[in-house]
Write a structure and sequence with these properties.
heterodimer, A: alpha/beta, ABC transporter transmembrane region fold, six-stranded mixed sheet, about 10% strand, B: alpha/beta, Rossmann fold, four-stranded antiparallel sheet, 23 helices, 10 strands
Chain lengths: ~625, ~600
């Protein structure tokens, strides 16, 4: 309920960023009230002339002109009003969609991964679309209700104060009673709508799980369950609606009873001669018009509710804090300073001197070479801590390591040890809570995403296919690559073999085929992209599931080509390729528990030995 | 047309409710006409200053119409909501049944994308047919006719004018406006689906989009689509605004014209002047009848579209009829022997838990997937079906489960040919653990009970223990009542597979099919899961489908499936002696391990 009214408020604020259209709409409402008064005035004069004075209509020409003019103008006003309302709504929707889009880019992959992309699209397309009725109908109806009855009641007051009084008293009572009843029912109604949505998703759930249901021959049971739940829902909802609809009932009752009251009151005064027929008829004609805006608003009430509900989801996304937006840089480190590196290397357990020397040599070499502007790059993680929002313990705590330039480093660890988080931090999907990540001495905070990411390529099995040709998909890695370059990259990666078997070769649209690509095929395309991008840093996100040995062998050969003279970071999920690495990092409980060569670790690290034997078994 | 027939079949189930709702709806509008007409008459009569007692009847009827309008409206709303919920139930139920009869290949096709959710929202869309299309049209017809005959008693000319203008307002204008806006609507829908597509692509591909620096291209595309949609919406509003304007023009023109043609009747004494206001006011009030027809046309289109896509999707199975083909006849035929089979099920089936494929051929389209394969697995044996991806391994599983019927040859389970027994019975004998474990948005208990309805909590806990889910289970605050959430998202891959094992254990089937059960799992989890499965299938027949050749000497029989044929068969050491795909793969796979052992 608080959600409901708070998003209502926000929707209002959003609407009134630009006031002009709403002022114009109020003006249009005012004019339409004026035309109805003129129109009814004309009608009452004409009827009075014929009925009371037995005069032919031809003799009351001014009244006829008023009628014709008012009818024409009123229609045009409605037309303009609709165009204006829609234009305003369209603008707001477009603005919201653009904001959402930007927000999602800002939130990045770490966030979208936790979301259902179909849901996101639904929020942006259908969800925002629901706001259309909110802005094009609900708010204009509210404005209409605020303007028209006021104008009419003033007019009636001027010609017949007693009838004016009736309208004045009954009018405001409608919203009062409606909200009195509405408040009691609203919460219940919302709960029922929530149940309705639950039913819808329950049904979807059943349909999606149909294969499982069939395996267990439970489809009939589920069928009965769906019927049973739906029926129970109907019964409980009807109970709620009986009360909820009372507010509509009150509205109708007031509007029609008040009209009846006005008619009877005028009738009685006519008999007594206290009022003339024309005035009485004029007021009677205006009475329903007075209540009409209330009824129209009542009819849009549901649109208002739906709008503010789907707005809730939209605003929730807009309000999500981006994990990349954390303020992290409280002071820099100078990567070139040897003491920092010393510190970095001492953090972990005591490694055999040989290995440390090796690393240190590399580091020193890297640091000097980078100053000389060499294309290869050293990556350093220092004291990196990261906690996912809502989690009480950090995934990474004071995690430090380095990827010396031109070497191959593998990262191993059990599921959930933080490998993926490291990948995300390195590709700037997340920003560390504390600590520093540097590329060739440049910290994350001093470069923008673009400059950072263009130094690295990621090879994985979950690479995304844009809805375009295969050619364009591989070219995405380097837009100015020629067709020949794409083909030769694909040949090296082994993608060429299956691409040329596709109906239109490289010009085959991915829309139809991407879903059918196997993990191995995806990976080969990913390798082709990486070859084309030719970056100093290469991240291999090893697939967690095994390919068949044939594909795996072919991919390993392609990777060997790719890794030449690059800083390679292998996120190993299955340990199948780790022995090629110059250095292996063992990640445990959010920190590097051990590092060294394969041989060294097998002898000295129990966890590593366990993992290797699990794979080898 | 077909679609309307299908839709109205749903309505036929509630003839009385629907008649009542329609009458209440028409009554509401007629009460509105009555209110204005009697008020007009009241003040006209009063203007002639008769004794007040003469007007008591009309005063009472003014009040009566005033109250009855509100009461009628309230009851109509309640009743039509009740009907809508009933219809929704019917549609869901019928649709679910239709879908559960569609073939497995279709179901597998549905897995991808948002197709399924679009199906369910189509079903939701159908409910509008009754409230927004069917009722308003019938009510409009009833009210139009009533007001025509009512007005004719006073002023025939005004009655004809009203009829003509009501038709104009209720039929000509909505049809004309729809026609003007038709192209616009279709293009908007197209653009919206393109926008939706862009959003899905953007959020799923955002990692690659960032890596290749394509963010701005996407922002631009989104902006273009949004402004194009806005532009179309504005153009459409020019048309729909015309609709609003026309409604006002037509209504008041009709009233003015009615006045114009009725005035002479009053002047020449044919009609009492008291009736003049009544006629004009009734004409205005009767236009409420056609107010909702504009949206009716709109909803007619959307419901038609929804029904059409549902019909085509279920391949016409959604013929909204109870009767259907294959499955049901078969289960009827076997109803008698179904029961005893279930009771003596376990012991009986355990004895005959063998699997036979005899010269089985099968193809999805033209190219044969299985080109005459044959093998036999005895009770309690452990067999492996291996081979390169795409060789037809999954098809074997689908045939075994009777999701498909073979094009040639036969499959038998126990002593029964599959063609002779209903799918229910086949599936009761076979438990499947594959990579598609589906967890329902329901409690842990219900998710387990799917496998065995009458299982008590003790059985469930036992199965969790045997599936090595015990420590996970003990971490759950609400125990068996824990909600597993959307598609069981909060379970890890390993836990999901253990859930599948727990289900299979509850099922207590003599035959287990393990179709790549550890794909998508990391090595350590994989090892643990395999160990658990081997433990629990010790006394059962097990057919493993795998492309990873690990610990192959465990199997009693290994079949290599290549290009739809069994190319090699035997035990591990036998196959290793042959120079075939199998030994090649084993060698390839162990290359790395051997290197490793050497270095170690």
């Amino acid at each position: 309920m608080t959600d409901y009214s708070s998003s209502h408020k926000r929707l209002f604020r959003l609407a009134f960023v630009h006031r002009t259209p709403w002022v114009l709409m109020a003006l249009l409402s005012f004019l339409s009230a004026a035309t109805i008064i003129v129109l009814m005035h004309g009608l009452s004069i004409a009827i009075d002339a014929v009925f009371m004075q037995q005069t032919p209509l031809a003799l009351v020409q001014p009244a006829l002109v008023l009628i014709a003019g008012a009818i024409a103008v009123r229609g045009i006003l409605f037309w303009i009003h609709e165009i204006l309302a829609q234009k305003t709504a369209s603008q707001i929707k477009a603005r919201l969609r653009e904001q959402l889009f930007g927000k999602i880019q800002q939130l990045g992959p770490a966030w979208t991964e936790t979301q259902n992309s179909g849901d996101l699209a639904a929020t942006a397309v259908e969800g925002v679309e629901k706001l259309d009725t909110y802005y094009a109908r609900f708010i204009p109806a509210a404005i209409h209700m605020a303007v028209v009855p006021v104008v009419i009641v003033i007019a009636v007051f001027l010609i017949d104060w007693l009838s004016g009084l009736i309208l004045l008293i009954t009018g405001p009572l409608i919203p009062v009673f409606m909200s009195l009843i509405g408040m009691r029912a609203r919460q219940q109604v919302q709960r029922q709508w929530a149940t309705l949505r639950y039913l819808s998703s329950h049904f979807l759930d059943a349909v999606q799980g149909l294969r499982t249901l069939k395996l267990f021959t439970r489809e009939d049971r589920k069928h009965t369950e769906i019927e049973h739940i739906s029926n129970r829902f109907r019964v409980s909802t009807m109970g709620v609606l009986k009360i909820a609809f009372l507010s509509g009932f009150v509205l109708e009752l007031f509007a029609s009873l008040a009209t009846a009251l006005v008619a009877v009151e005028i009738g009685v005064r006519l008999i007594e001669g206290h009022i003339v027929f024309q005035v009485g008829l004029f007021v009677l004609l205006l009475a329903p018009e007075y209540y009409l805006p209330f009824r129209m608003f009542g009819a849009q009430h549901h649109a208002g509710m739906e709008g503010s509900e789907s707005a809730g989801r939209v605003f929730a996304i807009l309000d999500t804090n981006a994990l990349t937006q954390k303020v992290i840089f409280n002071g820099g480190i100078d990567v070139q300073k040897t003491s920092d590196f010393q510190q970095l290397l001492q953090i972990e357990y005591s490694e055999p001197v040989k290995s440390r020397d090796y690393l240190q040599d590399k580091t020193a070499a890297a640091a000097t070479e980078e100053q000389a502007g060499s294309p290869s790059v050293t990556v350093v993680f220092e004291n990196v801590t990261f906690t996912y929002p809502g989690k009480s313990y950090p995934v990474l705590s004071n995690c430090s390591f380095m990827l010396p330039k031109g070497t191959k480093t593998a990262l191993v660890g059990v599921t959930g040890s933080g490998k993926t988080t490291i990948l995300r931090l390195l590709t700037r999907q997340l920003a560390p809570d504390s600590g520093w990540i540097t590329l060739g001495g440049m910290p994350t905070t001093k470069t923008d995403d673009g400059a950072w990411l263009e130094k690295m390529a990621v090879v994985n099995q979950t690479n995304w296919f844009f809805d375009d040709t295969i050619l364009a998909n591989i070219q995405a890695a380097r837009p100015n690559a020629t067709y020949e370059e794409v083909v030769s990259a694909s040949k090296v990666s082994g993608a060429h073999e299956f691409i040329q078997k596709l109906p239109d070769g490289y010009l085959t649209g991915t829309g139809e085929f991407a879903a059918r690509f196997s993990g191995g095929e995806r990976q080969r395309i990913s390798i082709a992209r990486a070859l084309l991008k030719d970056t100093p840093i290469l991240i291999l996100d090893e697939p967690s599931s095994a390919l068949d040995p044939e594909s795996e062998d072919r991919i390993n050969r392609a990777l060997d080509e790719l890794m030449v003279s690059k800083t390679v970071f292998l996120i190993a999920h299955r340990l199948s390729t780790v022995q090629k690495a110059d250095n292996i990092l063992v990640l445990e409980d959010g920190r590097i528990a051990a590092q060294g060569t394969h041989t060294y670790l097998r002898a000295n690290c129990k966890l590593y030995e366990q993992m290797v034997s699990a794979y080898a078994s | 047309m077909n679609i309307h027939l299908a839709l109205s079949r749903f309505l036929k189930r509630y003839p009385w409710r629907i008649t009542a709702a329609v009458l209440l709806g028409a009554g509401t509008i007629l009460a509105g006409i009555g209110l204005l007409a009697s008020s007009g008459y009241l003040i006209s009569a009063a203007a002639l200053r008769p004794p007040i007692l003469d007007l008591m009847v009309i005063i009472v009827s003014v009040r009566f119409f005033g109250i009855s309008r509100a009461v009628l409206r309230y009851s109509e709303r309640l009743l039509s909501h009740d009907i809508t919920f009933r219809l929704l139930l019917q549609m869901r139920s019928r649709f679910f049944r239709a879908l559960s009869k569609t073939s497995a290949s279709r179901l597998l096709g549905f897995r991808s994308g948002s197709l399924l959710s679009s199906i369910t929202s189509d079903v939701d869309e159908l409910q509008n047919y009754y409230v927004r299309v069917f009722t308003p049209v019938i009510v409009a017809v009833l009210v139009t006719l009533t007001s025509f005959f009512f007005l004719r008693a006073f002023s025939p000319a005004a009655a004809w004018i009203t009829l003509a203008f009501l038709l104009l307002n209720g039929v000509a204008v909505p049809v004309g406006v729809r026609r003007l806006a038709r192209g616009l609507g279709a293009r908007q829908r197209h653009l919206r689906s393109e926008l939706s597509h862009l959003w899905v692509e953007h959020s799923q591909g955002i990692l690659d989009i960032r890596l290749y620096g394509l963010q701005n291209a996407y922002i631009k595309r989104n902006k273009e689509l949004c402004s194009e949609i806005s532009r179309l919406e504005r153009r459409q509003s020019a048309v729909t605004g015309l609709h609003d304007g026309l409604h006002s023009w037509i209504l008041f023109s009709a009233a003015a014209l009615a006045l114009f043609v009725t005035a002479p009747l009053v002047l020449d004494g044919t009609l009492s002047g008291v009736m003049l206001a009544l006629v004009v006011l009734s004409v205005m009030a009767s236009f409420e009848a056609t107010q909702n027809l504009g949206t009716a046309f709109q909803y007619l289109e959307t419901t038609e579209r929804a029904a059409e896509s549902l019909l085509s999707l279920t391949g016409g199975v959604l013929s909204f009829e109870d009767r259907d083909h294959t499955g049901r006849d078969l289960s009827d035929r076997y109803k008698d022997d179904n029961r005893p089979a279930k009771e003596s099920g376990t012991s009986n089936a355990q004895a005959a838990a063998s699997l036979v494929f005899d010269n089985v051929r099968f193809s999805y389209c033209e190219n044969p997937v299985l080109d005459g394969i044959g093998f036999a697995i005895q009770s309690r044996e452990k067999a492996a079906l291996v081979g390169p991806s795409g060789s037809g391994k999954s098809t074997v599983v689908n045939l075994l489960l009777k999701f498909y019927d073979p094009a040639g040859g036969f499959v038998s389970v126990g002593d029964n040919k599959l063609a002779d027994i209903p799918a229910d019975r086949v599936r009761a004998m076979i438990a499947v653990v594959d990579q598609f474990t589906y967890l329902f948005q329901d409690t842990l208990r219900s998710n387990l009970k799917i496998a065995r309805e009458n299982a008590d909590d003790g059985d469930l806990l036992q199965s969790l223990q045997d599936a090595h889910l015990w420590s996970w289970y003990q971490g759950l605050e609400k125990g068996l009542d824990t909600q597993l959430g959307e598609h069981g998202k909060q379970l890890s891959g390993g836990e999901r597979q253990r859930m599948a094992i727990a289900r299979a254990l509850l099922r207590n089937s003599p035959i287990w099919i393990l179709d790549e059960p550890t794909a998508n799992l990391d090595t350590i989890t994989e090892k643990a899961i395999v160990k658990t499965i081997r433990q629990v299938t010790r006394t059962r027949t097990a057919l493993w489908i795998t492309h990873r050749l690990v610990q192959m000497d465990y199997y009693d029989r290994i079949y290599v499936l290549e290009n739809g044929r069994i190319s090699e068969r035997g035990r591990h050491h036998q196959l290793m002696r042959r120079k075939g795909w199998y030994s090649d793969m084993i060698r390839l796979q162990s290359n790395m391990l051997q290197e490793e052992i050497e270095t170690a």
